[in-house]
Amino acid sequence: MAAVLVGQFHARDAEGRIYSVHEFQESEVDATASSLPRVTYKLAIGDRVKHLGDDRFELVHNNLELIREPEHTPPAV
User: Fold this and answer.
1) Least C-beta-crowded within 10 Å: which of 19, 57, 63, 76?
2) Distance of alpha carbon 76 from alpha carbon 31, whole angstroms
3) For residues 77 and 71, what is the distance between their CA atoms, to the nearest angstrom?
4) How many domains, in total, are found in the chain?
5) If we measure between CA atoms, which residue out of 2, 1, 8 comes closest to residue 44?
6) Tens-level pLDDT at each residue, the chain (77 residues)
7) How far is residue 30's CA from residue 49's CA, in Å, rounded to a whole number?
């Protein structure tokens, strides 16, 4: 199955480091799977990320918790 990039956002750890997270959607859904497409997350460098719910994520290889940064709109000029 192929994955298609459908979004990206920044997340921050407890020490303030910022990570670029990419959101992928599986382009083919298994016939036995639910009707919802499977969504996966990875850092820009390829490390897997698990969605814990709401704006909380976790780096799989070291259990580091990340919080999704709110999207902000630049002020109108």
Assistant:
1) 76
2) 47
3) 18
4) 1
5) 8
6) 678 999 999 999 999 999 999 999 986 655 565 567 789 999 999 999 999 999 999 999 999 999 999 987 666 77
7) 22
Query: Would 45 be classed as within a structural domain?
Result: yes
What is the DSSP code string of 9-75? EEEE-TT--EEEEEEEEESS--TTS-SSPPEEEEETTS-EEEEEETTEEEETTT--EEEEPPP-PPP
Nearest to 13 by CA among 77, 74, 67, 52: 67
- Partner residues linked to 4 by β-bridges: 25
The reply to whether 28 falls in a domain is yes
Token reading at 16: 């303030």
Residue 74 lies in a domain: no
Residue 38 vs residues 3, 34, 62: alpha-carbon distances, Å: 9, 9, 23
